[in-house]
Structure formats: structure tokens, C-alpha cells
Amino acid sequence: MYLVVATTCVITATFLSGSLFAQDCEFDLGPDTMLCHGQTVLLQGPTGALTIEWQNGVSAVYMTADTSGTYWCTATLPIPGQDVVTNGDFSDGDTGFATDLQLGTGGAWGVLSLEGTYGVTTDPQLLHSNFSSCGDHTGGGGMFLANGSAVENASVWCQTITVQPNMTYAFSAWLMSASPESPAILDFTVNGASLGDPLLASSTTCIWDQFYALWSSGTATTVDICITNQNLATSGNDFALDDIAFTPLCSYTDSIDITVLPPPPDMLVTGAEPICPGTLLTLQATLDPPDWPLDDVHIEWNTGVDASTILVGSPGLYEATADGLCLNVSGSALVEADTCTTLLEMPNVFTPNGDGHNDTFRPMTIGEPTSYTMEIRNRWGQVVFRSQSIHTGWDGRAQGGPAPDGIYFWVVLYSDLQDNGRSVSKELSGSVTLLGTR
């Protein structure tokens, strides 16, 4: 079933709720969509995706659809609510992790006066008077704060976590310098193996930088994740950590069919010709070209008739309008008046000798009578020819052979249409000379 888009709009991917990983990962680009010619629709991939790829290789969140086809989006997403790190935002204080640093106990500049000590705080300056006053990564919460250790490979933060086999996880954390001197260099490991390059803290305090790396669990069910400081300086090397997460990822693909209609056709009105009083004329309205793909076309005439054809009995301008989805076209035809009065003039001689000139005897007319009969008799009163069509004349033959030259007598009975639409019977008679019979 198609969603019909009347104007350019945005179709946004929505997530489908569920408790299983696969369900949490699903998103929906929306229903299949039909566009009018020249319109576009802006497709939006899922928000919060780590990676996005559309069918044409574009990695942006948005995709403009302006041609017919199937558009698909593959996204890698963190599974909502499945972060396996405990107390990664330090909202529960000094719990849930292991460290080789010592909990700060105080000194001349505050709780973290000594190297190799740590604490959990909402502001670094609360634990060391020389540290900058900064908020946590998300604002208003806690952070892990360290006065860096000079001990090589000392663990800053470690945790043993449970993982699902054959899953991809994202290891992420945020790092900030509490003092500008000698910024920390942190290495992130899983079971002792580094994930990418170490993260160097900014020398500008209160600036949060993110570490982010992917890790595949394989057959593992539990792992040790650790953060160690590679900077062994005894001066400076003061930093904060926040929002440490180890989140399972999933990949999902959804597609949407876009149909862009062709340009709307024209409307043709045919059948118009001068109309005689008292007669009817059939006008036909058709789309051109006729192969419009939708069947919701409604045709209405300016006379109020809903049909593709109408009968008209008077002169005038007749207009037909076709309406439908992405369609509004009109066409018209002018029907002019015709008195339809018939004028007949009969020749007085004809020469049926086969030379192509004046070979038949019939009336010369302006207009066409509504009825017509012509009889031709010889001088003895015998009928030698009869016709009921003004287009069928006498070729000078009688009883299967050429009639003799001479004078013949004719009578024409016909009906003439008047301006008021009434038909009047008329009679003409006279003689014609036949010459040069073959």
C-alpha cells in the first residue's frame, strides 16, 4: 500500500520497540510512497545510528528520493538499554570498578594532593584547589578524577563484564584534563589487548574528548576491560573520566519503494463539428497519452455531466476537466452553428462518355438533405434510374446497357432542415439532355 505525498516532505525512520536485541535494533523508513511528477521526498535514517549507508553508498542521515525505485538504508546502532558497564557515569560514586590508584585522603591542595590518587566528584576543584572548575560530560553529574600516577601500566579503571557471544560492542569513554600541564595519555584494552591508538587528553581544561572503538566478542562470555595511563609524568597528568560504556551493537536494513508518476497527460476533446438545429453531436474527452497509470480519473464537463462522452444539441464551448491524484487537466472544443439548409442545382446536360468529366448526372448541393430520392424517366414515362443518395448519380445506362442520347425527365424529392430545426419536404423536377453515350 502506498502513502501518497502531495507535497515535498520528510519521512523519518522510527524504531520498533521490543525486548530482544533484534527487535531493539529494527527501524522503519515508513510506508511505500507515491510522488507526483517533479516532487521529492526526504528520507531520514534512524537517529542515534553509529553508521548509516544508503543503497547508493551515501552515509548521510538524509536521502532525497526523486526517482522511482527501492531505497534501502543499513544502520549500525547501539542496542538501547544494553550497556554492560556498571556505574559508567559514576552516579553511584566510588563503586563498581577496580583501580591501581589510591583513594585520595587529603593534603595541602585538597583530597587529591598526592600523585596516584583518585576520587569521584562533580567538580575537579572540589578535590584539588589547583584544578580547573568543570562540569561532568553530560552536566550535573559525577566524574572519575585522578592525580596521575608515575607507576608504569598502572590501571586507572577496570571492570569485568558479561558479554554475548558473536556480538559487536562499542567501547567508549570521555576524557578531560583537570590541569593543562602534561595531559594524560590513556590506553583502552580488552583482556589486555589495546583497542586502537591511545587517547591524548586536550591541554585545554574542561574539554571532553571521546574514545570510541569496536570489539567483536567471538565465543567470549566474560571479559576484562581496562583503562591505563601511558603518561608517567609526576607533574600535571591530572584528568577526569566520565560516561564509560561498553554497548552491544546491531545492524539492520529497511527499505521503502518510491514511485514517481510521469508528467500529467493532456486532455483532448474530439467530435466537434458545426451542428444543425435539432440534431445531436457526440463529444469525446480522452487523456493524451492515454496510458495514465492511475485509475482514479474523474472527468466532468462544464455542462455538469460526469462522463467521458456527452451529447450536445447546441453551439457553444464545451470543456472537460480530468481530476485525480497528481492530475488536473482540461481540454475544450468549440461547436459552431450550422443552418444545414440544403441548396440543390441540377445540370441540364451530361456526357457519360468515360472521359472523367460530367460522366454522371446528380445534383450539385450545398448542405445535405435529411432525405433524398431522385427518379429519371424516358419520354415514354418509364423509370430508367432511381437513387436515394445525393452521392449516387446516373451514369447514362439503362436496362444493362447505354441509354440512347436524348432528353430525360427527372424528379427530386428531398427534406430540407430549417433554422428552427424542423424538416420541410421539397420537390424539384426538370429535364436533362444525355449526349455521347459510350
Give the helix level as a range of percent: under 10%
Query: Might you state the CATH topology name of the largest domain?
Result: Jelly Rolls
Average pLDDT confidence is 91
Broad shape: rod-shaped
By secondary-structure content and strand pairing, the structural class works out as mainly beta
CATH architecture of the largest domain: Sandwich
Total number of strands:
35
Name of the CATH first level of the largest domain: Mainly Beta
| pLDDT < 50 stretches | 17-23
Annotated CATH homologous superfamily of the largest domain: Galactose-binding domain-like
Number of domains: 4
Estimated share of beta-strand residues:
over 45%
Structure write-up:
There is one protein chain. This protein has 438 residues and is mainly beta. The chain has four domains: 2-79 and 252-260, Immunoglobulin-like, CATH 2.60.40; 102-248, Galactose-binding domain-like (Jelly Rolls, Sandwich); 266-335, Immunoglobulins (Immunoglobulin-like), CATH 2.60.40; 343-434, Immunoglobulin-like, CATH 2.60.40. 1% of the residues lie in helices and 47% in strands. It is built from one helix and 35 strands. The protein has one helix at 21-25; strands at 2-5, 9-12, 14-15, 27-28, 32-35, 41-44, 51-54, 62-65, 69-78, 102-103, 117-121, 143-147, 155-162, 168-177, 185-190, 193-194, 199-200, 209-216, 222-229, 238-260, 266-270, 281-288, 298-301, 309-312, 316-324, 327-335, 343-345, 349-350, 364-366, 371-377, 383-387, 397-398, 401-402, 406-417, 423-434. Strands 1, 5, 7, 9, 10, 11, 12, 14, 18 and 20 form a ten-stranded mixed sheet that branches. The protein is rod-shaped. It starts with a strand and ends with a strand. Mean pLDDT is 91; it is low at 17-23.
